Amino acid sequence: MKQENNGKANRGGRNPKIDPSIHRHVFRLTENENAELLSMYESSGMHNKAKFIISLLFGKEVKTVKVDKGTVDFYMRLTTFHSQFRSAGANYNQVVKLLYRNFSEKKASAYLYKLEKQTAELAALCQKIILIAEEFEEKHLKKQP
């Protein structure tokens, strides 16, 4: 059997709060007011509606974070493409070294000429991608005053 501490039984459970919220207030809203309150609550990103209302009542700062899924997706794809582009550059250097190591000078030059054509096309494609990214940023990411 467990021993009691200072005559008090160990009841278990959660430790009591120092300053519990025991006062309750009720108010009624119209349909429009309720819709506006819910909209503000959802845009705040807070997980507790009561804490949100308290922060509004006492003028505490409420931060609103809006995440645009399309923009996030765009940046994820752009990041993936950039890493693939960098790996292509590393592979390019390895291919050039292998060409000169394993083939004659004439054969290596012929293959290198074909590789240069493909590289020029890749560079042009890269310029187009940069222009598209800049256009997207100007249209969708710049904050308008």
Task: Give the structure's gist in a few sentences.
The protein has 145 residues and is mainly α. The protein is 65% helix and 0% strand.
Describe this structure in words.
There is one protein chain. With 145 residues, this protein is mainly α. It has two domains: 23-66, no CATH class; 69-141. It has four helices and no strands. The protein has helices at residues 31-44, 49-57, 69-102, 105-141. The protein is elongated, with a radius of gyration of 32 Å.
What's the helix count? 4
Report the strand count: 0
Give the oligomeric state: single chain
Q: Summarize the biggest pleated sheet.
A: none
Q: Which descriptor suits the 3D outline?
A: elongated
Q: Can you tell me the number of structural domains?
A: 2
Q: What gap, in angstroms, lies between the N and C termini? A: 72 Å
The structure class reads mainly alpha
- Give the amount of beta strand, in percent: under 5%
Element-level helix/strand string: HHHH
Fraction in helix: 55-70%
- Give the C-alpha Rg: 32 Å
Taking pLDDT < 50 over at least 5 consecutive residues as the criterion, the unreliable ranges are none
**Overall pLDDT, averaged?**
80
Keyword list:
elongated; 65% helix; single chain; 145 residues; 4 helices; mainly alpha
Layout of helices and strands, plus pairs?
Elements: H1 31-44, H2 49-57, H3 69-102, H4 105-141
Helix pairs in contact: 3-4
